[in-house]
Task: structure prediction
Amino acid sequence: MRDILPRERAIWRVAEKAAAEVARSFGYEEMVTPVIEHADLIERVGEDTDAVAKELYRFDDRGGRNLALRPEATAGVVRAYFEGGLSQGPQPSRLYLIGPMFRYDRPQKGRYRQFFQFNVEAIGVGSAALDAEVIELAAGWLHGVGLGELRMELNSIGDAKCRPAYLERLQAYYRPFKSQLHGDCQLRLESNPLRLLDCKVAQCQPFKTGAPRITDHLCEECSAAWAEVQVLVDAAGIEYQLNPHLVRGLDYYTRTVFEFYRASATGQQDALASGGRYDGLAEAEGWPPTPGVGFAGGLDRVTELMAASGEEVIAPPPADVVVLADGDLDVAAADVARICRTVRSVAVDYDRKSLRAKMRSANKLGARWVVLIGAKDAERRIAQLRVMASGEQVEVAWVDLPAQLA
Ligand code: HAM
Result:
């Protein structure tokens, strides 16, 4: 976990503002859910996933409840969609959320234990057009923050109707090679065979090429949705590669899955944004069956790339005006600051150091003006207004300060 200091926040603000703007432009509304959920909710929707099985921050609270820091937002957003009555409103509910997620992963560049997502969900309508819509929204956000050269990978992983038969085919294909797979994959072969396809271990790679492709074994409905998604993503002018091995790390996906990478990314770089359809998730949480689709973008990775690609975001100075008094004049300084604050941001230097030292720190802060108050000036309710860029200084009555600073 890490701190994000004021100078870094400037670039984060640009990324978050772009997220909010593009989401609103597609008709998505912001919501917030707690960072803590019942562990049960999270576990029910992702028992077999790394984020839940190996990386969940779980604890008992003082009331003996078994809780978890959310590893992702979708499970909580779906819970809130039902609990908050959104399921009774116009459908789909188009929702977005920006906030921290927690995974006890091995920390490294671009991968943190507390990280931030821009999470987007369209819940309540099963149309494949919404799959394309959230893909277009994700691409729009990444373009908007200057990361336009993208590679999108797209796949369909079928649904509860067609996937079981495909998984049997996949197992039948892999079984003769079982002893040549690495340990985890030998276990996956029986417990979660789909994950064989996204194994990154070298010894398992040769077997992938000959593996049956799920897109060759989709049921009629999944097949039609798969075709429609591609037509719509094409129409949106978004380039993509079909990747039959893309299955995603979370269990709840059905049909469309996708991931966005930097075009220049090679090998095993991390995705900037990723998501897909999750038509079985609501039911897995114990609600009526309800379709949904969405994605999450990683703000940590996106802001890192924005900074690396030379995106120059100059943090504005914390205050336009610094008020400083010569000596013990806190009341006068606070009065003057209050007057100036009607038109400008103002910080007061209450330190008991010399006037020279106070001028130096006002300069370091980047203030445009300094308002100096001496004991005699204070009695007459006047001050010295200094324009930092030119060094020019004039005497101004307190009441006239707003006009001078406007
Ligand atoms: P995810 O692929 O696990 O999907 O995460 C989405 C994005 O969050 C990733 O593409 C990456 O940019 C970022 N991310 C994930 N883990 C980390 C980490 N440890 N450090 C920094 N960034 C990270 C989900 O979370 C799904 N809930 C997305 C979704 C929404 N699917 C449907 N709706």
Summary: The two ends are 42 Å apart (CA to CA). The mean pLDDT is 94. The chain is about 35% helix and 20% strand. The CA atoms of residues 324 and 349 lie 5 Å apart.
